[in-house]
Amino acid sequence: xxxxxxxxxxxxxxxxxxxxxxxxxxxxxxxxxxxxxxxxxxxxxxxxxxxxxxxxxxxxxxxxxxxxxxxxxxxxxxxxxxxxxxxxxxxxxxxxxxxxxxxxxxxxxxxxxxxxxxxxxxxxxxxxxxxxxxxxxxxxxxxxxxxxxxxxxxxxxxxxxxxxxxxxxxxxxxxxxxxxxxxxxxxxxxxxxxxxxxxxxxxxxxxxxxxxxxxxxxxxxxxxxxxxxxxxxxxxxxxxxxxxxxxxxxxxxxxxxxxxxxxxxxxxxxxxxxxxxxxxxxxxxxxxxxxxxxxxxxxxxxxxxxxxxxxxxxxxxxxxxxxxxxxxxxxxxxxxxxxxxxxxxxxxxxxxxxxxxxxxxxxxxxxxxxxxxxxxxxxxxxxxxxxxxxxxxxxxxxxxxxxxxxxxxxxxxxxxxxxxxxxxxxxxxxxxxxxxxxxxxxxxxxxxxxxxxxxxxxxxxxxxxxxxxxxxxxxxxxxxxxxxxxxxxxxxxxxxxxxxxxxxxxxxxxxxxxxxxxxxxxxxxxxxxxxxxxxxxxxxxxxxxxxxxxx
Length: 551
Prior knowledge:
By secondary structure, the chain is of the alpha+beta class. 43% of the residues lie in helices and 16% in strands.
């Protein structure tokens, strides 16, 4: 399965020619005093003069409830979400390119502190960060974009350079430029009724491109949750009339404890503990193999290699989360090692399950043609699945091919899970057919019982790690979604332990006694046949000798 990491810092990758009407930029779980910084450094639209009275380009911020989907996923594809007063949206940022301003509209009762500009480098640790009264970012402020959720939309950017606002460009009333050339906005005011008026941000304009920035701070525990930030271009909602546009968005998300999303903060400790558990299981398994060398097969050592590879993969995964949480980005070398060990672990897992299911080394030493074809399918699919996993981990969520690779990973993983069941089913059918024909009913029934147990184990493993885990992730609150990873890893550990128990190289293991019993029976039968043949030959020799004496 796949795990999405909510990272904090990264370098943007510039591409252009985006035509999507809706772009899912990121999803992040915030605690109190968590902050979201967004800088639209480049927006270039291929639009002609229009008479639209309502802005059709902008951002939406919504809270993703447990068990729900993205707010605009079920709407009519021809509708513009920016023109609807939907209760799914908390905040809309409407970009008005005519008046060079961004209208900020809030819906419902909320305590989200929205201010223009970006936060300072080191926000205050005691309470919510306070924006600069003038709304101006500090001089020489270095923007640290987000590496995974940062939403530099990978098909849509033209340059890495951040455009600066021309100093002599006129802005609407109430807006002015700061000393560093960026647009400023006045803080929101309150009307006669005491209700806060809509905030208006300044929109910079240079060479047919637009830019602005803002930041949001979660002000209370009631506002904690999983937030989704999306970009909308309603000019492209009509099929066949899409106009390409360039977009560069840099996002930095941060919680009080680090750069990880709320559900991902416990994962560093979780993966470290599970890595130690798999390492202990591998060491114990090797000790068992060393004590019973007379009944150890090659697949036993393959099972040991799988346990150690799983442990190392989880260790690198844990270290990656540690550096992401503390520094905002992973260490490149460690990330590569994680991908390599993840690839080996995935391939070894499915190969081991398929080999055990086919009875290789335990019951037979040769694979049939059908079983060889299964391995010829599973191994390339596992390579493809790991390529998809690496692509998803390195892509931004707003990339156009992000969803495609995610679907490929899910489909390939499903095919592999189904493919590894075929050898087990074939072995069960073979034993059922052989139980009443070769005279070894008791032996074949014992084999059949063990294969059925293993089949149930594989089904339960797939069911818990693929179905139950996903349902749990959808059902639990945002801060408890790490239970999904806990269920997956604990189910995998339980499956490894039960498989080792069933196939342990012990003298009293009926699975390993079966081939030996068959061999003993075959040897006894050969001895009987040899003895009877020797007696027949001896009687013939005696008869021949007696005949000669008579003559």
